[in-house]
């Protein structure tokens, strides 16, 4: 590797063509310029210039080294231009969230991509621990989580409150429900459903609810887009965040039963410190914040 300082001095000397003016331009002494040239010559192992009085000509080795110096300056200019551009409509942004949030959010992101052809948006559905680790490592630029986060290397911003919904077939709309009725219908379980059931049913059926492990499961599915389908077909009930209901294409065949005590999740948007200052990341963060208002 050529010494970057010596190479820059040599490249400037070739541009200017004069040792004294090179020294003035770089804020150095003329012996200092000569010293950089000598050290670079030793590093290359061959003479770089042939002196002719106060002027000089380049040797073949000097021509080759100058080409490297010019190329390196061009790379640095391109890097500076890329850094300064920081276009909110160009580049890649990766987002991690729960499956229900991902399904709800994706159409909003597609609209953004239509307006910004150079913007690439990657969305991954993942559990809380994976989202946290991926934001910390830089794999995800943004994460949406429903659990408190206080890691010192993360920024967390309150996003919205999202309701946990008891989702039943449309034919149950307006009916008073109780646990035996739901148990007869059967539980459409999914990876988060047991925790949701403990949260929601413990609030509303204190005397009769014995825990999620006692619910009669009719079917289990771990694909978020598939969870409402058996409910819509009258095969069971489930519990989902409102985003998972709103994003389902057949939600006209579903009903949400409003229990006496409502249960909410506090959603937060997280990013690694400093990452949200990048224009494209900041723009998507604002988009998500605006869209999340509808979940309240």
From TrEMBL:
Q: Which UniProt keywords apply?
A: DNA-binding, Transcription, Transcription regulation
Record has DNA-binding as a keyword = yes
Q: Which GO terms describe its molecular function?
A: DNA-binding transcription factor activity; transcription cis-regulatory region binding
Tell me the SUPFAM superfamilies matching this sequence: Periplasmic binding protein-like II, Winged helix' DNA-binding domain
Domain HTH lysR-type intervals: 2-59
Q: What protein family is recorded?
A: Belongs to the LysR transcriptional regulatory family.
Any idea what this protein is called?
Answer: DNA-binding transcriptional LysR family regulator
The species this protein belongs to is Sulfitobacter noctilucicola
């Amino acid at each position: 590797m050529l010494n970057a300082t010596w190479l820059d001095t040599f490249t400037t000397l070739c541009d200017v063509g004069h040792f004294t003016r090179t020294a003035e331009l770089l804020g150095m002494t003329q012996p200092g310029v000569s010293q950089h040239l000598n050290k670079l010559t030793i590093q290359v192992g061959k003479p770089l210039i042939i002196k002719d009085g106060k002027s000089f000509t380049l040797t073949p080795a000097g021509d080759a080294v100058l080409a490297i110096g010019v190329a390196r300056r061009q790379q640095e200019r391109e890097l500076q231009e890329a850094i300064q551009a920081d276009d909110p409509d160009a580049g890649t942004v990766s987002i991690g969230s729960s499956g229900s949030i991902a399904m709800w959010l994706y159409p909003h992101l597609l609209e953004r991509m239509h307006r910004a052809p150079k913007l690439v948006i990657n969305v991954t559905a993942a559990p809380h621990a994976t989202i946290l680790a991926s934001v910390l490592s830089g794999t995800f630029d943004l994460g949406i989580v429903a659990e408190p986060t206080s890691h010192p290397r993360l920024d967390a911003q309150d996003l919205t409150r999202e309701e946990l919904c008891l989702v039943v077939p449309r034919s149950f709309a307006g009916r008073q429900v109780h646990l035996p009725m739901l148990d007869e219908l059967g539980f459409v379980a999914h990876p988060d459903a047991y925790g949701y059931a403990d949260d929601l049913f413990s609030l509303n059926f204190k005397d009769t609810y014995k825990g999620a492990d006692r619910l009669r499961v009719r079917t289990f599915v771990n694909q978020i887009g598939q969870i409402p389908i058996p409910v819509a077909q009258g095969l069971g009930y489930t519990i989902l965040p409102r985003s998972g209901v709103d994003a389902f294409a057949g939600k006209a065949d579903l009903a949400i039963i409003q229990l006496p005590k409502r249960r909410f999740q506090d959603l937060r948007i997280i990013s690694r410190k400093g990452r949200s200052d990048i224009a494209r990341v900041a723009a998507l963060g604002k988009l998500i914040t605006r869209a999340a208002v509808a979940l309240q």
